[in-house]
Amino acid sequence: MLLLFKPFWFSSRFYGKSIPFGGNKTVAYANTSTLGYLSSTQALADYATLIIDLKKNLSATDSPVVVFGGSYGGMLAAWFRMKYPHVAIGALASSAPILHFMGLVSPDIFNNIITQDFRSESENCYKVIKGSWDLIDDTANKPGGMELLRKTFRICKSDDFGPGSLEGWLRAAWIYTAMTDYPTPSNFLNPLPAYPVKKMCEAIDSSVTGNNRLAKLHAAASVYYNYTGKARCFDLDDNSDPHDLGGWQWQACTEMIMPVGGSNKESIFPEYEWSYEARASWCDFFYNVQPRPHWITTEFGGHAVERVLKRSASNIIFFNGLRDPWSGGGVLKTISKTLVAIVAKKGAHHVDLRFSSKEDPQWLKDVRKLEVNIIASWISQYHQDLQSNS
Questions:
Q1: Is 134 within a domain?
Q2: Is the pTM of this model over 0.90?
Q3: Best label site of 30, 129, 267, 350, fewest CB within 10 Å?
Q4: Catalytic one among 71, 95, 186, 267?
């Protein structure tokens, strides 16, 4: 029996269609009392109860269970195996940043990896993006500058359009494209070509736009926002939640205090120091809650992870692609024979869990084959132990 914690955020209560309170999202998201039931601990308990009940109802009490997950789902998969070893015999935790918490990683590491992704494709591409923030601000402050920005980036008419909203829109494009820099076309967040970071840099380096850096930035952002060519303009005020991230904002204000967003002098993003105080202030304003910055590492661990897991855990595969900015908080070294780290230099966010394709590169096929073989060995050992104890 295999249980899948779906990749990214759609993996537990309050996400997708898994809405409590009778499936009424308005009620479930109404206040801190109802949202208080949204936590990783509660989600894991849900799955433990579900698996035990399923096995009983299916007359499969002796069937081994392996859990799979990517991103937050990958974190849940790893933590599930640690917390419920009597329920699941193993876990594949893909792109699971279980170490991306305060006191464990630098707040700069996420943006450092994004910077390296673009810089590895083209030094000019890196420099154009790095200089874009000052360019946008300078343009906005000139007479007619805002209209020039609106026209160049094909922004839909909006009363709230400003340099800040444009910069946030661009920042999202660079971040999500780095995360989903897959070797084959995808439609995970937006429709994208294979190796979209490379395509973005090709757009910036193209001679078609001459020396017009704003036009180059628009061409690159269009790889993420308009690869299909169907968009006539871009709505920066779109407050819809197509990827169901609303619940994640709550978790990021309560338990998932992950220091992401710091930028140093080399970053393609403006230099910035991540601040827990700023996060706590925003959470207090938006949700009227105070974060628990050390709860995750108290509940699941994280400090001295190699030493701790070596003596307390087994049967977990940690996959990370080094082009994924979340890999900075992942387990990148094999800890024991049964706690295996698989690291793909060209891999992106949980690429191993994506649908297979004829265009998949050999390294990705090899990763999946290795994962299958490891999981098969767990199942084989489980049945051997079952027979010897019967």
A1: yes
A2: yes
A3: 30
A4: 71
